[in-house]
Amino acid sequence: MRLDKFLSHVGLGSRKEVKVLLKKGKITVNGQAIKQPQINVNEYDDDIRFDDEVLVYRLHDYFIMNKPADVLSATVDAVDATVIDLLQDNDYRDNLFPVGRLDKDTTGLLLITNNGQLAHQLLSPKRHVKKVYRALVKGPLPSDVEEQFQSGLMLDGEQLQPALITVLNNYQEEVDVEVTITEGKYHQVKRMFELVGSKVYQLERIAMGPLTLPSDLERGTYRRLTLEEEQLLLNKN
Predict the structure, then answer these.
(1) Residues 120 and 220 in one domain
(2) pLDDT digits over 21-57, tens only?
């Protein structure tokens, strides 16, 4: 791989920007300062550093975000801010995208990656990947709501896969619940509650597949997956 391509891929900037770093002697390869952008490097075996900091090449990037409200799960939008806009410059890649969509007003766990194959596996209906939500909904709920969700509600003339609902707190007029689904239909959780005569006031995704929203990840922030989380994602999706 060309050195300038490598440097751009690991987030040091555009090819034009990394050429400036090279000219300043900021980049070393195996202990030697290199100024030629066109030289070839082994992205896995060579010791490549910027200001003596080791640069690690990743074939794909994986970020976990605690999505805030009023931000779109999209790569670009002419009007509203997107989750990609929340990325720092050194993490941005033009091929990053959110895996699936959370509604504009829905918060919580969102995976951002450039691994299209993994995204397809996580979103494929055939995979039945679990997605767990915490919701504050209008009460009271029907006494048989657990049975209705478990048996599979009818939505748009189609029977949904069984879903689990657990009541965490019952305030009568408002009910705090946890819902687990294995599909990702348009506004699915909100529409499921409409079918049982309720309404969703707040909705947060707290888990997807093997990933759980970290308790210390503040709303509107993100971080790169740990190696353990990455291995879980790649091995158990």
Answers:
(1) yes
(2) 999 999 999 999 999 999 999 988 999 999 999 998 8
Helix (H, G, I), strand (E, B) or coil at 2: strand
pTM: predicted TM-score of the whole model, two decimal places: 0.82
Q: Where are the beta strands (DSSP E) in the chain?
A: 27-29, 32-33, 48-50, 53-54, 62-67, 97-98, 107-113, 131-138, 154-155, 158-159, 164-170, 174-181, 200-208, 211-212, 222-224
Please give the backbone phi and psi of residue 49, each rounded to the nearest 5 degrees, phi first: -135, 150
CA atoms within 13 A on the CB side of 219: 10
Q: What is the CATH number of the domain that holds 21?
A: 3.10.290.10
Does residue 148 sit in the same domain as residue 78?
Answer: no
Q: How far apart are CA 16 and CA 4, in angstroms?
A: 9
Q: Which two tokens stand for residue 58?
A: 């990743």
* Count of positions (residues) in the chain: 237
CATH code at position 190 = 3.30.70.1560
89 plus 191 within the same structural domain: no
Question: In the numeric block, which tokens belong to residue 53?
Answer: 């900091």
Active site residue 103: yes
| SS3 (DSSP) at 19 | helix
Q: Give residue 18's domain range.
A: 3-54
Tally of structural domains, the chain: 3
Annotated catalytic residue: which of 103, 105, 144, 176? 103
Per-residue pLDDT tens over the stretch 102-148: 999 999 999 999 999 999 999 998 899 999 999 999 999 999 999 99
